[in-house]
Structures are given as C-alpha cells and as structure tokens.
Q: What sequence folds into this?
C-alpha cells in the first residue's frame, strides 16, 4: 500500500498545514511507523507543486511536535519515541467521525439517515 | 587543443539547454510532448554533428576523427536528457498528490540495459587503458601517438594508435558523458508526478525516461568504442614485427568493432521506441493508493 499526500488548491488551509495535518494523521493512525523514512524535501515539493520551504516548514513543525526526526545525510524519519498520545488512533477516528456527523447534520440529514449511510459504506458490519 | 574541447563540452550542452527551454516556451500540451522530444533529438544530433565536424577539421593527426563519435555522443546524451526532463507537458490543474515513497535512481534502472551499458563502459575503458599504457612517442616526440615494437635490430611502428595523445581528451569527454548521464537520471527521478493518470503510469513514464537516457549513454560509448577499437586493432595487426600479445589483442579489438556497432543500433532503437501507457486504474480513496 502506497501512502499518498494530497494538496487541495481550493482549501483555504495553508499548504504547509495541509501537509502537516496529513502526515500527523498518518503517524497517529500507525500507517507511518517509527523509523519510516519520508521522501526528500525536493521530491515532495516537486510532486505537490509547492516551494521546498513549504514542505520544510511542515517537516519542521512535526519535528517540534516530536513526530519526526531529521539527521544530516540520513533524511527525515518518523521519530522512534514519537509523542503520539495513548489512544491517539482512536481519538483520530473519533474526530473524523465527529466532523462527518457535524457536516451531515448541518446539511439537514437526520441521525437515522447518517447511520444508514454509514452502514452502506461498511458492508461487513 | 584543450581549449577547443573545453569550449565544445561546455558550449554544446548550454546551446542545447537554451533550445530545450525555447521548445517548452508557451507550454507543451499533453500528447504533444513526443513530437517536441523528437525535435529535441533531431536538433541534438544536428548540433552534435556540426560540432563534431568542426572539431574534426580543427584537430590534426586524427585526433578530431577519434573524438567525433564521443562528441556526437555528448550531444545525444544531453539532447535525450533534456527531452526527458525539460521538454515536458504542463501538469493538469487541480489537486496534486505525492507518494510518500522516496524515489531512487536504482529503482528505475532497467537491469538488462544497465548491465549492457556497464559492460560496454568497462570494455571501452579497458581498451583505452591498454592502448594508453602500450603506446609510445612518434618520430616527432609526441607522446602516446603510436604503437612500436623492436625485433632484433629492426623496429616497427604503427599510428594513429589511441595512446595518451588521443585517450586523454577522450577520457575528458567520457567524464562529461558520465556526469551528464548521472545528472539526467537524477533529474528524471526527481521529476514531479502528475504526467500520467496514476502512480503506476507515472512509474512507467519514469522508467522509459531512464531507459532512454541510459541507452543514449550506451550509444555514445558503443560508437566511441567502435572507432577506438578499429584504429587500435588495425594498428596492432599492421605491425611488421609484433610482441606476443599484439596479434591476439589486435584481432579481439577488430572483432569488437561489429559487436559495438550492433550494440549502437540496439541502443539507438531503445531511445526511439515509443511506449504505451498502461490503462489508468480506477480511483481509490486518498491516503492509501
């Protein structure tokens, strides 16, 4: 499975913050594990069509949060003792569910309709 | 002499880069790039041919002739490299995605072609090393221009023989070919995603590009080896008196000429063969593709 980052040009969130959030979510969800190497700044910036500084800022902020570690010549990796809070994975999912429910309710869907829609998306449940 | 070669080695890539940039002016439409890439190759061969012809006329005693294939090779490598990196279509607008896998040149090198190019390079460098070590000064005292042997009281010599007189400028040209190839391969691997409908297609495009760049380097080496081996082999076989190693080595070198020419044809075929993109895969949710 290849992990992919996506930048939405029409999203008002600054590109570095979109990147920071997606990377943080991937680490919190456990899809990026301790020691996993991230692509070089230039590669990521080129693919996403942003300045190298934008990616560098996202990496730097994640380093300050203790999620990434950089070494000269060794690239940027997911920190071994990352400060992912206990239960962070569950918390992340809970946050996503809360966001979805809030958006659906704001569009006038009832709780029953939301549950039915979710059930259709999860055929095994 | 060294100034002319230096001018050629710096001027030719610079001129080709300017032409490549002018070919991309006004943006290249998707699907149109193949035409422009072929224009880039044609221009590179034309400019390489003119430069090689000028060099042939300005360097005496066969030095120009020995450098012709290598100089033409530099132009081909630069032209193919620019075609795969600079002459690219505009990426479509909209969301941009990036894989979190760090790309490395070694992941995109076709094994068979890489092995053949390396073997050609080793053969050619071994030939140049042998001829450099075994050459002697000519009757005018120019070091490394002929091969000579002593048979009792009489001696025999043959030239032109690719000793240091020829091999030093050729080695400089090869260094440039090697550095240009590495730079082009790195640029191809760093090239942004988004020229193909999905990641698989993007990898396929990247592998084609590395194949063409590598094949261009192979063509430069094979062409140059054919010329060097021909001059060296025939010089060794022309000697009236020979040391024990000269005849077998001479035959091996002469035999390697048609092999190098066949390889040259194969390398050129790998450059010009267009490929087809795999069908786009159905879209999957962002985050894990």
A:
């Amino acid at each position: 499975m290849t992990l992919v980052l996506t930048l939405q040009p029409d999203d008002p969130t600054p590109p570095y913050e979109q990147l920071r959030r997606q990377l943080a979510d991937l680490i919190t969800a456990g899809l990026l594990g301790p020691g996993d190497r991230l692509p070089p700044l230039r590669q990521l910036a080129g693919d996403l069509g942003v300045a190298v500084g934008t990616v560098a800022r996202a990496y730097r902020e994640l380093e300050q949060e203790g999620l990434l570690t950089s070494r000269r010549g060794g690239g940027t990796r997911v920190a071994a003792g990352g400060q992912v809070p206990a239960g962070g994975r569950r918390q992340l999912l809970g946050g996503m569910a809360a966001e979805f429910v809030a958006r659906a309710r704001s569009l006038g869907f009832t709780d029953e309709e939301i549950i039915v829609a979710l059930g259709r998306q999860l055929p095994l449940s | 002499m060294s100034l002319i070669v230096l001018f050629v080695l710096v001027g030719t890539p610079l001129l080709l880069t300017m032409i490549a940039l002018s070919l991309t002016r006004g943006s290249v439409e998707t699907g149109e790039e193949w035409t422009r890439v072929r224009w880039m190759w044609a221009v590179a061969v034309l400019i390489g041919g003119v430069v090689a012809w000028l060099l042939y006329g300005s360097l005496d005693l066969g030095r120009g002739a020995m450098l012709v294939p290598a100089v033409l090779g530099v132009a081909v490598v630069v032209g193919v490299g620019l075609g795969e990196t600079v002459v690219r279509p505009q990426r479509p607008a909209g969301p941009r995605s990036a894989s979190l896998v760090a790309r490395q040149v070694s992941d995109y090198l076709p094994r068979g072609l890489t092995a053949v190019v390396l073997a050609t390079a080793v053969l050619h460098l071994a030939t140049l090393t042998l001829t450099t070590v075994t050459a002697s000064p000519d009757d005018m005292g120019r070091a490394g221009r002929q091969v000579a042997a002593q048979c009792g009281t009489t001696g025999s010599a043959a030239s032109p023989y690719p000793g240091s007189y020829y091999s030093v400028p050729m080695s400089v040209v090869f260094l440039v070919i090697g550095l240009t190839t590495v730079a082009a391969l790195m640029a191809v691997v760093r090239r942004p995603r988004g020229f193909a409908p999905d990641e698989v297609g993007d990898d396929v495009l990247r592998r084609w590009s590395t194949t063409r760049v590598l094949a261009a380097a192979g063509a430069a080496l094979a062409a140059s080896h054919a010329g060097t081996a021909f001059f060296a082999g025939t010089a060794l076989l022309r000697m009236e008196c020979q040391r024990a190693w000269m005849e077998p080595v001479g035959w091996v070198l002469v035999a390697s000429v048609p092999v190098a020419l066949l390889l040259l044809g194969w390398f050129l075929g790998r450059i010009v063969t267009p490929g087809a993109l795999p069908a786009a895969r159905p879209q999957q949710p962002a985050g894990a593709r």
Observations:
- Residues 91 and 97 of chain A are 10 Å apart (CA to CA).
- Chain A touches chain B through 25 residues (CB under 8 Å).
- Chain A has five helices and three strands.
- The radius of gyration of chain A is 17 Å.
